[in-house]
Structure to design on (581 residues):
């Protein structure tokens, strides 16, 4: 067979395989949007569940997920960005630094359900936080750390060295240079990384199973030591644990979760591409 | 006044830098902490139950039987099948995106794969339950579609973003001169890709597979929702199309109901230790491969 014909057939095959990767993604999103959109209305988004969750809305689950995401952000941002600044600006290439990097890679790979076990062991039982927003947020925060650290370090590293040299040559200390020159330049990249980390946290179920999630709560949480409902767990519960749950409500809940997570994704992408075009180096 | 302000600034700076140094090392602390707490809650199992009983074939917690073999084999079956599906798809997509695709196709493919990476696993599990499993049931005429195969299919797509991005990086690191040399020898682009570029990126592709495997073996919610959760030894020929139960799903499903401090409770943490050690080993191997190549010069 003619080798140019082989090439053309080969390229077509590669394209087809890529299509097999992409089409199911569209199918998942399309199915959930088409079947879930009819469930979405004002009441669904803002009312308490009724009739054993078969009616009413999913308001407490939405609020719960937002609260958990906020708690995760409060805990993960200072530690994650601080860790990235250390790695990008302070650390030298020693075995200790390599150990830190290895630890980050491993944190990223630990199964989410193992984070759940750890959160149960440390925060819920040992530190006696109980199943609470506090315990859940801290568990999720440690899980998102590697994402935030890697992205923020990358953003700090691409800031050209001249910025640091000029700051130092004007008599600035290292921290002044970082605080006033390097961090502002790296900010868009850091924000993108933070959002990507938080959207992971917002969509995770396994780490919150034993640390915070409530099957059903007729009221909103009052303090960080309360349990809360959360969207991903709620979807799991109504699709596997409640017999006779109307499919429409299940798809509606999946759609709300999907929209929440994907819109965060879009925001992150926009920030990244907008600032990449605008920066001067 | 001036001096006071300056010394205060110096003090703040000292505090900030101290904070940065402490949190810089926090990642190591967290890994150690996670392992310690798994051991603390999981080790009692190994004193209460002889090791021989733990690798037994029966997991019936109600009768105090904690044989982990069916769970370990279940995880392996689902993971290996998932990788067998994901590797050809992922490698083909990575080669297509990096070497072949026109600009517009790349601009569609890459964001789509990022979207896939962002879909929560519980949503994919829900889709698997309501769409994929019934499809498998009808095609096979089986009593249930909630099978190892359904789990493997979902897992394959969940590990694709990892496999594609790591493989793409590996292809990216192959110097342009390799491609030029191949073409200058009169090879077609197709021949150059498969006989020069992909072999040169081999170790990176192996790493992509390993990292994808790490993702797949630790995945919990989607697997729990679609594999049917029957703790049986999956060694017969048709196991792929029967329900199985994985290690992760067992922990997630049973932890809510156990009494704290019971043997069952310790056994679930024991599974956690196994999962931690397995993913740690996979990543250590992958990471040392990176360091090794950096040392030899050039990430390739």
């Amino acid at each position: 067979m003619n080798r140019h014909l082989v090439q053309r057939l080969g390229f077509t095959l590669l394209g087809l395989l890529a299509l097999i990767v992409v089409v199911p993604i569209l199918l998942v999103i399309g199915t959930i949007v088409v079947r879930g959109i009819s469930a979405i209305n004002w009441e669904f988004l803002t009312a308490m569940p009724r009739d054993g969750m078969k009616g009413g809305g999913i308001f407490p689950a939405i609020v719960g997920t937002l609260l958990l995401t906020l708690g995760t952000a409060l805990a993960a941002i200072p530690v994650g960005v601080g860790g990235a600044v250390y790695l990008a600006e302070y650390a030298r290439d020693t075995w200790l630094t390599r150990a830190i990097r290895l630890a980050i890679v491993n944190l990223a790979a630990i199964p989410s359900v193992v984070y759940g076990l750890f959160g149960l062991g440390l925060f819920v039982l040992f530190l006696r936080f109980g199943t609470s927003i506090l315990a859940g947020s801290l568990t999720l925060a440690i899980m998102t750390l590697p994402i935030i650290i890697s992205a923020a370090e990358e953003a700090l590293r691409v800031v050209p060295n001249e910025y640091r040299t000029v700051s130092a040559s004007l008599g600035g200390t290292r921290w002044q240079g970082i605080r006033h020159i390097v961090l502002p330049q790296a900010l868009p990249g850091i924000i993108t990384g933070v959002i990507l980390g938080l959207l992971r946290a917002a969509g995770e179920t396994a780490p919150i199973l034993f640390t915070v999630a409530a099957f059903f709560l007729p009221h909103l949480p009052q303090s960080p030591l309360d349990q809360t409902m959360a969207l991903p767990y709620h979807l799991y519960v109504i699709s596997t644990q409640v017999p006779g749950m109307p499919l429409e409500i299940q798809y509606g809940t999946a759609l709300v979760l999907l929209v929440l997570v994907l819109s965060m994704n879009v925001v992150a992408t926009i920030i990244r591409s907008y600032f990449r075009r605008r920066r001067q180096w | 006044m001036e001096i006071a302000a300056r010394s205060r600034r110096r003090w703040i700076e000292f505090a900030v830098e101290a904070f940065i140094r402490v949190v810089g090392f926090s990642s190591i602390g967290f890994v150690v902490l996670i392992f310690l707490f798994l051991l603390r809650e999981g080790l009692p199992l190994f004193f209460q139950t002889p090791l021989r009983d733990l690798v037994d074939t029966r997991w019936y917690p109600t009768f105090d039987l904690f044989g982990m073999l069916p769970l370990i084999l279940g995880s392996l079956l689902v993971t290996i099948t998932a990788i067998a599906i994901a590797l050809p798809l992922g490698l083909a997509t990575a080669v297509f995106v990096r070497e072949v695709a026109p600009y517009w196709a790349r601009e569609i493919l890459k964001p789509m794969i990022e979207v896939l990476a962002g879909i929560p696993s519980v949503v994919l599990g829900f889709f698997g339950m309501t769409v994929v499993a019934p499809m498998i049931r009808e095609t096979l005429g089986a009593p249930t579609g909630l099978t190892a195969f359904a789990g493997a299919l979902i897992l394959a797509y969940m590990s694709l973003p990892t496999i594609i991005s790591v493989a793409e990086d590996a292809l990216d690191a192959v110097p342009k001169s390799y491609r030029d040399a191949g073409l200058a020898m009169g090879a077609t682009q197709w021949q150059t890709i498969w006989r020069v570029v992909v072999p040169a990126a081999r170790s990176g592709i192996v790493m992509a597979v390993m990292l994808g495997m790490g993702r797949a073996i630790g995945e919990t919610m989607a697997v729990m929702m679609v594999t049917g959760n029957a703790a049986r030894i999956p060694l017969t020929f048709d196991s792929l199309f029967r329900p199985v139960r994985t290690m992760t799903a067992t922990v997630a499903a049973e932890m809510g109901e156990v009494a704290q401090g019971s043997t069952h409770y310790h056994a679930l943490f024991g599974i956690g230790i196994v999962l931690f050690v397995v993913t740690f080993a996979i990543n250590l191997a992958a990471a040392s491969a990176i360091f090794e190549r950096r040392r030899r010069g050039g990430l390739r």
Remarks:
- Chain A has a mean pLDDT of 91.
- Strands of chain A lie at 49-50, 55-56.
- Chain A touches chain B through 88 residues (CB under 8 Å).
- The radius of gyration of chain A is 23 Å.
